[in-house]
Model the fold of this input.
Amino acid sequence: MPHVTMYTTTVCAFCLRAKSLLGQKGVEWEEINLDEHPERRKEMIQKADGRRTVPQIFVNGRGLGGYDDICALDKEGKLDSILEMDPEKIAPPITAHYRVLILGSGPAGLTAAIYAARANLNPVLVDGNEPGGQLTITTEVENYPGYADGVQGPAMMDDFRKQAERFGTQFIQGQVEKVDLSNRPFTVCLEKGDCFTVDALIVATGASAKWLGIESETRLRNRGVSACATCDGFFFRGKPLAVVGGGDTAMEEALFLTNFATKVSVIHRRDSLRASKVMQQRGEKNEKIEFVWNSVVEEVLGNEKDGVTGLKLRNIKNNEVSTLPVEGMFVAIGHVPNTQIFKGQLEMDDLGYIKVNSGSTYSSVEGVFVSGDAADSVYRQAVTAAGTGCMAAIDAERWLAIQEMN
Done:
């Protein structure tokens, strides 16, 4: 086997996801935790050609990039070859039938798994490309019942997962590529070629972070542009930073970054925050945080060698253009539902959220139940996602019982 090196940090959702992917392939790696070995940060940045995000993964000294990069290589069928895996030991595509298949491993999916497993439905859960969901890139969770002193997002999702495993949930690492809901049993196929037929499908695919969608943001991603302060904030110790957004996520990112930055500029297109009062007050009281109101990012300044050097801003009230010197930009402007694979098969609203019957998780296709942020454009909280995950499992259990009686 080749020598695999992975640079990580202690709280890093994408590191956990990379480990899960490599672990599924039976690959061992040398882990260098940069929180424990901060003296090796410069080493990683040099080896990674200037990238300032974790994880960074190397195979026999060759840089593969981060989690998204190895996912892309796996999807293209190239990762197994790079890892020098024996073709005879690569598992062939799986064909199987399940009573209940759950798509997604955030609060909704894992809660559905707990309830379905306790109902002896033998659920199988497909992790998706973001095992643990959005909470794995969240620092302190203070508003989930049962955690009186708060809890780190990744630790909370680990608790959820262990509870689902305790009752017998089977987990499959992978990303769904296509579904066929035109006939029952439904067919679900993963990117790696596995295909399943299922009697009942619970959709808990959640949502993913939005990006600004400008060319310079894409070009400088991993070189000063990030969507995860907990993953990458430590690379910017002693530097001025910017956070784009005005909700709770933006304030949480900004507050976390004050542990490293000399100053954090919060850029928001309105003249007031959308964040909760508690988060607003914390931000306003922090001396390191300043607000740039009524402004949008027109361009991220910098180059691949030096990284981000500043932001070109435009005031939407008077169209004045200014330059803000920063060395990192963290994007926190909301999320988009991960429902693209269901377009044309399930009824959705204009934003891509799947429609469900009032007071239930029933979708427009009988036997498909939808929970969490895939259907919720209003609340989008961990506790409401868990609640609808419970509802989806109960709806699926009762629906299956009726089908089997008939």
